[in-house]
Specification:
Length: 122
Amino acid sequence: MQEFYQLYQELVLITLVLTGVVFISVWIFYSLNIALNYLLGACTGVVYLRMLAKDVERLGREKQSLSKTRLALLMALILLASRWNQLQIMPIFLGFLTYKATLIIYVVRVAFISDSPKLRQP
């Protein structure tokens, strides 16, 4: 279980660093409004990642399958963005997907750079 917590902390850290880099880049190249929309989506993605980690942690002990209530978080955010004129759907959605970029970075790092056999096991 210690390995799970270590992986979770690493994924959250990478997500936060990636969020900061992208937020500053979007602010420089676009506008503060779009950057804040991205940041809102990225923060929602971190909350989603935390909810997913809690579900995975309970898997096997208390539950037999993962819950699907996490998706309500994204749906509520997209509905809010579509109703409120200050929010833009695309930057929020792309911000939400930042945690997916973190997973890609982690998989590439483990598969190609690290000598760790975590993902190479059949």
